[in-house]
């Protein structure tokens, strides 16, 4: 990482966890079904109808949307979402960055604290098409465990209303109360067809740091995950990572 801090979790760690896994397709979970075109269309209409400032459309990115956005934007600002924090509370991922053997925990924003991230402004004439791409990426199942909602985000150029995806604590997929150590146990092993949770964590920490955003929770996790990967591979006779 080209930052002032040196992360413990490296590309070598990520390589040790990576496995080539074919896409198993939609995973059946009791009480959920795969989203279809009608679901996506209805969600887009709901978002557009509830937009506080339709002429000024922003998206709040706290994780992978920072380093792998599902849209093109015309402006980016660092911003703070009060009342929310990053947390690995979305379980269990058996497809994208987890499997039946090594289920993953995905990150979402959850209530409490504050979250520094970025807001992206979409060009007005592209909003509907870009929303279609974004919703298809973020809402794979119905009901969604982290529904889209509008939150106010503070930026140095003033507050904006931004669309985000926040964890629903009433969802059966909500995994709360895990310690950083227990979370790291999961993240150090999980891998799916899109890659590993170690890769996801490393990319998020790197991009946040490059933006001048230091998230102490994620930095603690990346150290714990690196330790666990090294320990697991040393146990199996694989040389440790320098």
What is the CATH homology-level superfamily?
Answer: Gamma-glutamyl cyclotransferase-like
The secondary structure category is alpha+beta
Order of the strands making up the biggest sheet: 2-4-3-6-7
| CATH structural architecture | Roll
CATH topology grouping: Hypothetical upf0131 protein ytfp
DSSP strand (E) fraction?
25-35%
Helix content: 25-40%
Shape: globular
- Low-pLDDT ranges: 236-240
Average of the residue pLDDT scores: 93
Assembly of the depicted chains = single chain
Number of domains: 1
Terminal Cα span: 15 Å
Précis, in short:
The protein has 242 residues and is α+β, with helices and mostly antiparallel strands.
What report would you give on this structure?
The protein has 242 residues and is of the alpha+beta class. It has a single domain, classed as Hypothetical upf0131 protein ytfp. 33% of the residues lie in helices and 26% in strands. It contains 7 helices and 9 strands. Helix 5 packs across helix 7. The chain starts with 10 loop residues before the first helix and ends in a 7-residue tail after the last helix. Mean pLDDT is 93; it is low at 236-240.
Pick out its properties.
five-stranded mixed barrel, globular, alpha+beta, 242 residues, two-stranded antiparallel sheet, 33% helix, Hypothetical upf0131 protein ytfp
């Amino acid at each position: 990482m080209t930052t002032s801090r040196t992360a413990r979790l490296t590309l070598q760690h990520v390589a040790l966890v990576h496995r080539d896994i074919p896409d198993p397709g939609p995973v059946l979970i009791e009480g959920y079904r795969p989203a279809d075109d009608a679901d996506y269309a209805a969600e887009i209409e709901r978002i557009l109808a509830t937009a506080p400032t339709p002429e000024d459309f922003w998206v709040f990115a706290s994780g992978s949307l920072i380093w792998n956005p599902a849209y093109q934007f015309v402006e980016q600002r660092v911003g703070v979402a009060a009342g929310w924090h990053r947390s690995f509370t979305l379980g269990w991922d058996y497809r994208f960055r987890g499997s039946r053997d090594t289920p993953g925990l995905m990150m979402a924003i959850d209530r409490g604290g504050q979250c520094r991230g970025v807001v992206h402004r979409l060009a007005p004439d592209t909003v509907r098409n870009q929303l279609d791409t974004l919703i298809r990426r973020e809402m794979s199942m119905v009901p969604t465990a982290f529904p889209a909602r509008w939150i106010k985000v503070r930026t140095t150029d003033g507050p904006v209303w931004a669309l985000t995806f926040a964890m629903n604590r009433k969802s059966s997929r909500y995994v709360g109360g895990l310690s950083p150590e227990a979370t790291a146990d999961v993240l150090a092993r999980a891998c799916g067809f899109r890659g590993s949770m170690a890769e996801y964590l490393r990319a998020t920490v790197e991009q946040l740091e490059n933006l001048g955003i230091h998230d102490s929770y994620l930095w603690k996790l990346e150290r714990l995950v690196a330790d666990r990967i090294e320990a697991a591979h040393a146990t199996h006779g694989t040389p440790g990572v320098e």
